[in-house]
């Protein structure tokens, strides 16, 4: 069954709630390799997104995601703001002017979003960034059979595994890269928040 | 956490209220956009200088807004870069028809947000300089590159003087690039800082340990070492700076010992004394100096050393009048 605009709304709200619950966890991950603000920054941004969802209505998925992207760009700051902001802006472009999203369309949206993240962050696989969670997630999504729920389950599982694997990597982007070898042994906070986004999608778009 | 705050969420907003109340003669503050403006900006024909970054580094950058330095500073959340909306608003407001220079420290978030602002800026001609003077970071394609730290203070002063003289955007930009390329820095932390929203120290450091090669956001340094006498700590900072800064015996430098927020002036001057001995050994002349807490990392104890190789022009611009809350002379 395709996802409706109200499902997409539920996805974003679920993500906001998860981030809010996990502020301390994300900040702790960030303190180990960065500057201890990923949780609070994402929480500030997603609470703004909830405010937008409460006060505005959207006719199509692209308008919704573009607004979400701009809201995050304007509210988050740091590296997460431009990266998550660009992600949602491009998801909107990739999905297009539709009011229902099937598995194919969502896949196209996610791919466009991740390409935006790559263009903005100039990361490569293995740099210990959110892209390390996204790359296997997209592959799993495309490789999975079935409806949106089955595909998102596969994507979220792959992303979770990849998130755990980032602990073994030496960071080459972002503030964690200043640590060099000392960044190994810690999970990347961006990969962790990416898994939360996919798990929220799995739980709301099925 | 033991801080003079009300609510961690209100720290930046309430501090900006205080900045405005304390420095009405110099600045006005746009509280919606969190921008500190020079009172008399825009000035026709003057290149506008816009900088900004996370809060928690005071007086950087809001304290350097005024005659002879910045036209506007965008304040982010604590240790978080500001957002493109702020930079766009600042850019449009300070443009006096001669264009605007963005002064950006090389941190991933600052660079990305300023990039987005420059892409989205309307008709204003915008150039950017990204400072990257921190020799603690290996500069390679496999990292985000060197951080922009202490040299940013010196650059804002020198480029601010040039903009005040009415030079073109091209001139001001070229000068900014030259200052950045002529400066190197290295820092050390004796304690962690505590980000108000996190509520606890960013890293744990034993009483007999120091972090060498730190940035300005509580991010850990290049390596952890045992605490040593000041002369040895000074060598840990000055040697890698000199190893990286192209120079010859007989060259002149502007020497800057910067307190990280929790180190008193007596120790900063003691460190400056050690730095002068090391520079003397290296055959370098200190043309000008700056000692004090200008680019802090909340209450972190420690300091950084910045050396800027200078010529007569840079010294003349350094000496030019400046009148800002955080730096003032000759005016």
UniProtKB/TrEMBL annotation, chain A:
Gene Ontology BP annotations: glycerol catabolic process
GO molecular function: glycerone kinase activity
Keywords: Kinase, Transferase
GO CC terms, sorted: cytosol
InterPro entries according to UniProt: DhaK_L_YcgS, DhaL_dom, DhaL_dom_sf, Dihydroxyacetone_Kinase
Domain annotation DhaL: ranges: 6-203
Key word Lyase present: no
Lineage: Bacteria, Bacillati, Actinomycetota, Actinomycetes, Propionibacteriales
Protein name as it appears in the record: Dihydroxyacetone kinase subunit L
Pfam families per the UniProt record, alphabetical: Dak2 (PF02734)
UniProtKB/TrEMBL annotation, chain B:
Recorded GO MF terms: glycerone kinase activity; phosphoenolpyruvate-glycerone phosphotransferase activity
GO biological process: glycerol catabolic process
GO cellular component: cytosol
InterPro entries: DhaK_1, DhaK_dom, Dihydroxyacetone_Kinase
DhaK domain: residues covered: 7-329
Subunit structure: Homodimer. The dihydroxyacetone kinase complex is composed of a homodimer of DhaM, a homodimer of DhaK and the subunit DhaL.
Pathway(s) the chain acts in: Polyol metabolism; glycerol degradation
EC number: 2.7.1.121
Catalytic activity, reaction form: dihydroxyacetone + phosphoenolpyruvate = dihydroxyacetone phosphate + pyruvate
PROSITE patterns reported in the protein's UniProt record: DHAK
Protein's UniProt name: phosphoenolpyruvate--glycerone phosphotransferase
Pfam families the UniProt entry points to: Dak1 (PF02733)
Keywords assigned: Glycerol metabolism, Kinase, Transferase
Organism: Solicola gregarius
């Amino acid at each position: 069954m395709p996802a409706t605009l109200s499902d997409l709304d539920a996805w974003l709200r679920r993500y906001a709630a998860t981030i809010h619950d996990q502020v301390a966890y994300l900040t702790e991950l960030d303190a180990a390799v960065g500057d201890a603000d990923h949780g609070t920054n994402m929480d500030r941004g997603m609470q703004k997104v909830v405010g937008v969802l409460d006060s505005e209505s959207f006719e199509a998925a692209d308008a919704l995601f573009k607004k979400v992207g701009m809201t995050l760009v304007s509210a988050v700051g740091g590296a997460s703001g431009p990266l998550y902001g660009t992600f949602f802006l491009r998801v909107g472009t990739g999905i297009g002017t539709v009011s229902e999203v099937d598995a194919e369309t969502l896949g196209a949206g996610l791919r466009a979003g991740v390409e935006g993240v790559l263009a903005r962050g100039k990361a490569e696989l293995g740099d210990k960034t959110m892209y390390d969670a996204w790359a296997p997630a997209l592959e799993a999504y495309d490789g999975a059979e079935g409806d949106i729920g089955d595909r998102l389950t596969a994507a979220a599982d792959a992303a979770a595994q990849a998130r755990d694997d980032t602990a073994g990597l030496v960071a080459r982007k972002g503030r964690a890269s200043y640590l060099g070898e000392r960044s190994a042994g810690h999970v990347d906070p961006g990969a962790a928040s990416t898994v939360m986004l996919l798990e929220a999608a799995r739980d709301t778009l099925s | 956490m033991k801080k003079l705050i009300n609510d961690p969420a209100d720290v930046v907003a309430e501090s900006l209220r205080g900045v405005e109340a304390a420095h009405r003669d110099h600045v006005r503050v746009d509280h919606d956009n969190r921008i500190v403006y020079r009172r008399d900006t825009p000035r026709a024909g003057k290149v506008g200088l816009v900088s900004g970054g996370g809060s928690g580094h005071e007086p950087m950058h809001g304290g350097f807004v005024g005659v002879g330095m910045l036209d506007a500073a965008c304040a982010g959340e604590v240790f978080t870069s500001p957002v493109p909306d702020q930079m766009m608003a600042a850019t449009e407001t300070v443009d006096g028809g001669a264009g605007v220079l963005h002064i950006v420290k090389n941190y991933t978030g600052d660079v990305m947000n300023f990039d987005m602002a420059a892409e989205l800026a309307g008709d204003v001609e915008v150039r950017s300089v990204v400072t990257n003077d921190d020799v603690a970071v290996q500069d390679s394609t496999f990292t985000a590159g060197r951080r922009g730290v202490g040299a940013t203070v010196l650059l804002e002063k020198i480029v601010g003087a040039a903009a005040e003289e009415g030079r073109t955007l091209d001139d001001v930009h070229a000068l900014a690039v030259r200052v950045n390329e002529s400066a190197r820095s290295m820092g050390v932390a004796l304690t962690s800082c505590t980000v108000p929203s996190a509520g606890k120290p960013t890293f744990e450091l034993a009483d007999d340990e120091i972090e060498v090669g730190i940035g300005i956001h509580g991010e850990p340094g290049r390596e952890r070492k045992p605490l040593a006498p000041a002369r040895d700590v000074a060598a840990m900072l000055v040697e890698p700076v000199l190893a990286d800064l192209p120079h010859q015996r007989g060259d002149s430098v502007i020497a800057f010992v910067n307190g990280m927020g929790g180190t008193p002036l007596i120790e900063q001057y003691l460190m400056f004394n050690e730095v002068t001995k090391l520079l003397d050994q290296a055959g370098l002349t200190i043309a000008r100096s700056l000692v004090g807490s200008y680019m802090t990392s909340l209450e972190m104890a420690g300091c950084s050393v910045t050396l800027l190789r200078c010529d007569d022009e840079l010294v003349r611009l350094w000496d030019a009048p400046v009148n800002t809350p955080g730096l003032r002379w000759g005016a």
